[in-house]
Specification:
The mean pLDDT is about 90. The chain is α/β, with parallel strands linked by helices. The chain contains 8 helices and 14 strands. The longest helix is centred in the middle third of the chain and has 16 residues. Helix 6 packs across helix 8. The strands form 4 sheets. The protein has a 5-stranded parallel beta sheet with strand order 2-1-3-6-7, with helices on both faces.
Length: about 220
């Protein structure tokens, strides 16, 4: 998945980005509220990690604007404000989770996955479609008990398709999740990764196939 971290403190942001990257999470960063709003307008992030003490405004105000504008993407607040009143305010303004600094990265990762499970309507630790399974904690795919070797971006693509199995994933969403703000997006980059993943799924009799919906995007469906 690709998420947006809104955090102005380099000493917090850098190690957090590194830790999440090692857990298979791609992270773009904004250090100011204005920059964050530009990022949110440009990229369809899976979730947002939000610090409240930003140099050009309060993170709570940014969160409130998002919700007023109909932006329902999951938001996990990461802040030093640990009072009960602060927690209640953050949750009432639309935060899906509220974590007080310092926090454990493993717990943050687990809470992030839990929020996404709730959003996507499944409760388990894995995504499944046909004989194909993607274990979210370890980021490993398998057919039955046989591992399926995938690159990082192939895994990211598979996750997007499996989260919305049977539904079309718009090509723009795929681009955002694979490449974000700084990715090496060529004119046919998405098609290349779709082709590679489609071939790997076909080669191992996965019980699923990737369909191209022309002019719209891609859809993962079970093979009858």
């Amino acid at each position: 998945m690709r998420i947006l971290l809104i955090e102005d403190d380099d000493t917090v942001a850098a190690p957090l980005i590194d830790a999440l990257s090692r857990r298979g999470v791609s992270v773009d960063r904004a250090s100011r509220a204005e920059e964050a709003e530009d990022c949110l307008a440009a990229i369809d992030y899976a979730a947002i990690l939000l610090d409240l003490g930003l140099p050009d405004g309060d993170g709570i105000a940014l969160l409130a604007r998002m919700r007023r504008n109909g932006d329902n993407r999951p938001v996990l607040v990461l802040t030093a404000r640990g009072s009960i009143d602060a927690r209640i305010l953050g949750l009432n303004e639309g935060a899906d989770e509220y974590m007080v600094k310092p926090f454990d990265v493993d717990e943050l990762h687990a809470r992030l996955l839990a929020v996404l499970r709730r959003r996507d309507g499944y409760a388990g630790k894995s995504l499944r479609c046909g004989a194909l399974e993607l274990e979210m904690q370890t980021r490993t795919a398998s057919i039955g008990s046989k591992p399926l070797a995938l690159s990082v971006r192939e895994t990211q693509l598979l996750e997007q398709l499996m989260r919305r199995a049977g539904k079309v994933v718009v090509k723009r969403v795929v681009e955002d999740q694979l490449f974000g703000l700084d990715g090496d997006l060529g004119s046919n980059a998405v098609e290349v990764y779709v082709h590679r993943l489609r071939k790997k799924l076909e080669d191992v009799a996965s019980g699923v196939r990737i369909e191209t919906v022309r002019g719209v995007g891609y859809m993962l469906v079970p093979v009858a």
